[in-house]
Amino acid sequence: MALVLRLQRRADFLRAARLGRKWAMPGLVVQAVATPPARARDDTLRLGFTASRKVGGAVLRNRAKRRLREAARLILVPRAEPGYDYVLIGRPQTVDRPFTALLQDLQTALKRLGRYRSAEGGQAPAEPSENGTRTP
Fold first, then answer.
1. For residue 23, how far is the Cα from the chain centroid?
2. What pLDDT is recorded for position 58?
3. Domains present along the chain, CATH in parentheses
4. What pTM does this model have?
5. Which stretches of the chain score pLDDT less than 70?
């Protein structure tokens, strides 16, 4: 499993927006850019989460980012190609979209960006139910 780090510096987010590829889905936008050589490691994913005021007030923005973090934990961490920085951007629909649809949006965006890895002989992660809990 890849080591997961968080993007926290504004420069990293701006770099992803400027140099990275992006794919927009109804529930989110995903940006992917290769990790800079100075910070790169073979088995590292760097993740960033953001939501603008277009999503809503602080409560809604925080809810959108929480949902994006959980979706990243379930889909991005086990399936995304390491060595890249990923920025997940919340949209107004992120808050109300069914969680399974949000997961599907993330998976589709990763595939369209060419950064989706299939299971490497391992078991696929447990799919969450409609309320967000995992089912065996």
1. 11
2. 96
3. 3-113 (3.30.230.10)
4. 0.83
5. 1, 119-136
